[in-house]
Amino acid sequence: MDPSMITLIAQAVGPLLATFFSKAMEGAATRTGEMGAEKAEALLALIHDKVDETQDDAAIQTVQRFEKEPDLHSRQQDLAALLVEMGEADPEFAEVLTQRVEDLKREPEVSQFLTQVSGNARVDKITNIGSARDVHF
Predict the structure, then answer these.
(1) CB 105 within 8 Å of CB 16
(2) Exposed site from 13, 66, 68, 105, fewest CB < 10 Å?
(3) CA 13 to CA 80: how far, in whole Å?
(4) Which domain range does residue 106 map to?
(5) pTM
């Protein structure tokens, strides 16, 4: 898999999981979001399995810190760096991670909340539209 693709996927994991962790902590999970929550849990389980397999204390701590503070950008970035490293070392893991992330991105809750801006980009206004016929600004 292309290293830049691994990086993009890895950078999406933190915000995706944070969306579901934040909702679960707030008690705002709805029946509609149950499938998304199950997919988020499966994604996290995949990460746990891979980290446990490595038996790397630093990697385990990175995941634990993310779970304690999923909304912190620094925790999301640390998790992304770890996932890039693991994905580059194990292409099969990268493929499964990519599939799980893509599955989770299709969930209605995620499409409403996940907008990622990276690099040196500057953004004035962002409008997310799930579906529409004609849109004029």
Answers:
(1) yes
(2) 68
(3) 7
(4) 3-113
(5) 0.71
Does the residue 75 lie in any domain? yes
- For 37-87, the pLDDT digits (tens) are 788 889 999 999 999 999 999 999 999 999 999 889 999 999 999 999 999
In the chain, the number of structural domains is 1
Q: Is 125 inside a domain boundary?
A: no
| Residue 120 lies inside a defined structural domain of this protein | no
Contact 107, 35 (CB under 8 A): yes
- Quick: pLDDT tens for 10-51: 888 888 888 777 655 455 444 445 777 788 889 999 999 999
Give ∠ CA 35-70-53 in degrees, rounded to 5: 80
Pick from 106, 108, 114: nearest CA to 18: 114
Answer yes or no: are the C-beta atoms of 87 and 93 closer than 8 Å: yes
